[in-house]
């Protein structure tokens, strides 16, 4: 059973009871991420997430870790382009502890200057590691040419100049963007809804109302990013404009992407890998944002085969627009539904699902409702969604490929 309550200040509290488990996952989901940053602040949302773990409330960094692990729990956080989440997984009796630590992280971080300088170096090392990993950095490169000059196109990690220029005052200003109307406290597992509401009232009930910081609207543009560094393989990514998360054709586009490259039976896997042996890793996916979307294909291949592999990818995409078959659609439908339902077998998956649907729709959405939308997609709708995505400009990113060969 799912339940939803709203505190007087606007903070929403939602629960999903799972009677068969003895644990609980609780998370504070905030509607603020890297696309809410100004240019000079790029990387601030991610740095904030790191810094709160360096000391908050009456605990040092070590004391935070010990407090959660003393009861066998786990504490985590993640920053995306649109959201930030702080979460804990614990035994059900320790819900108050987990909720209290999360509240301290967001509301009472220490932001020690010496820790800040140290953590900025850690973030830059993380950025360096990503740049040294072609299969990671290529997605930032693709995002940057899909949405050039826009907050949605910038890296979540920031860059040397932006991260290096961030100060304690920036962290404090960012903290004030965590407003009650833009946050949800969500728990799933062995949880009593009323008890969580009471905890939320104590920990967050006095947060004052604040107006939201609206991000710059996103516009897919497209273009080319070519990183000439030589690696053992060439890494390629191809992207297209796609429906936003609540668009009427979102699920049709999602199933088209799944059929084209979502599994070992997909067109791209069978054609590019199995029949031609041009790539070990190849897949397609659709990433949806509040006001935009990105349908993309990724593969890694030998440098000398990069042009042939990219040409075959484009050929298969074009063929799918008119040639997608009912059996392919049904297989994709089964994979998407199974992926959704399997994710809901864990407390973390349930909490994330509740938060995502609540953020998108403003209400609790039963999984059966999502399954019904997936089941309603027709072959004609999937083909039409694919045609619409492929009709516009494309974004292409490569790492380690000969750009002249790709452009030929």
UniProtKB/TrEMBL annotation:
<dbReference type="Pfam" id="PF05193">
    <property type="entry name" value="Peptidase_M16_C"/>
</dbReference>
<dbReference type="InterPro" id="IPR011249">
    <property type="entry name" value="Metalloenz_LuxS/M16"/>
</dbReference>
<dbReference type="InterPro" id="IPR011765">
    <property type="entry name" value="Pept_M16_N"/>
</dbReference>
<comment type="similarity">
    <text>Belongs to the peptidase M16 family.</text>
</comment>
<feature type="domain" description="Peptidase M16 C-terminal">
    <location>
        <begin position="168"/>
        <end position="334"/>
    </location>
</feature>
<keyword id="KW-0482">Metalloprotease</keyword>
<protein>
    <submittedName>
        <fullName>M16 family metallopeptidase</fullName>
    </submittedName>
</protein>
<keyword id="KW-0378">Hydrolase</keyword>
<dbReference type="InterPro" id="IPR050361">
    <property type="entry name" value="MPP/UQCRC_Complex"/>
</dbReference>
<feature type="domain" description="Peptidase M16 N-terminal">
    <location>
        <begin position="12"/>
        <end position="159"/>
    </location>
</feature>
<dbReference type="Pfam" id="PF00675">
    <property type="entry name" value="Peptidase_M16"/>
</dbReference>
<keyword id="KW-0645">Protease</keyword>
<dbReference type="InterPro" id="IPR007863">
    <property type="entry name" value="Peptidase_M16_C"/>
</dbReference>
């Amino acid at each position: 059973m799912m339940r939803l309550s709203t505190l007087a200040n606007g903070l929403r509290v939602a629960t999903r009871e799972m009677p068969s488990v003895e644990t609980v996952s609780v998370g504070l989901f905030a509607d603020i991420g890297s696309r809410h940053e100004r240019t000079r602040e790029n990387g601030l949302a991610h740095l904030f997430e790191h810094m709160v773990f360096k000391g908050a409330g009456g605990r040092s960094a070590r004391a935070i870790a010990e407090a959660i692990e003393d009861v066998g729990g786990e504490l985590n956080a993640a920053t995306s382009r649109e959201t930030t989440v702080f979460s804990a997984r614990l035994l059900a009796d320790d819900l108050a502890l987990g909720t209290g630590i999360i509240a301290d992280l967001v509301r009472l971080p220490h932001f020690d200057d010496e820790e800040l300088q140290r953590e900025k170096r850690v973030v830059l090392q993380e950025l360096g590691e990503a740049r040294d990993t072609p299969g990671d950095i290529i997605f930032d490169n693709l995002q940057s040419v899909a949405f050039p000059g826009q907050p949605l196109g910038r890296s979540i990690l920031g860059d040397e100049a932006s991260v290096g220029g961030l100060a304690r005052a920036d962290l404090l200003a960012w903290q004030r963007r965590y407003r009650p109307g833009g946050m949800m406290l969500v728990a799933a597992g062995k949880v009593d809804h009323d008890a969580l509401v009471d905890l939320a009232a104590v920990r967050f009930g006095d947060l004052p109302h604040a107006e939201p910081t609206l991000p710059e609207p996103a516009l897919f543009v497209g273009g080319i990013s070519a990183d000439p560094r030589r690696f053992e393989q060439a890494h390629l990514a191809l992207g297209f404009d796609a429906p936003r998360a609540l668009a009427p054709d979102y699920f049709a586009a999602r199933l088209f992407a799944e059929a084209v490259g979502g599994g070992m039976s997909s067109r791209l896997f069978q054609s590019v890998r199995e029949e031609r042996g041009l790539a070990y890793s190849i897949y397609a996916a659709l990433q949806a944002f509040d006001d935009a979307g990105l349908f993309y294909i990724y593969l890694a291949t030998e440098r000398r085969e990069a042009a042939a592999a990219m040409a075959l990818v484009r050929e298969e995409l074009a063929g799918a627009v008119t040639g997608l078959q009912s059996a392919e659609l049904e297989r994709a439908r089964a994979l998407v539904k199974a992926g959704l339902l399997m994710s809901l077998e864990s407390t973390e998956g349930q909490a994330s699902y509740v938060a995502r649907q609540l953020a998108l729709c403003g209400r609790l959405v039963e999984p059966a409702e999502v399954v019904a939308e997936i089941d309603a997609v027709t072959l004609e709708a999937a083909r039409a969604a694919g045609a619409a995505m492929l009709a516009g400009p494309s974004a292409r990113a490569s790492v380690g490929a000969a750009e002249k060969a790709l452009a030929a």
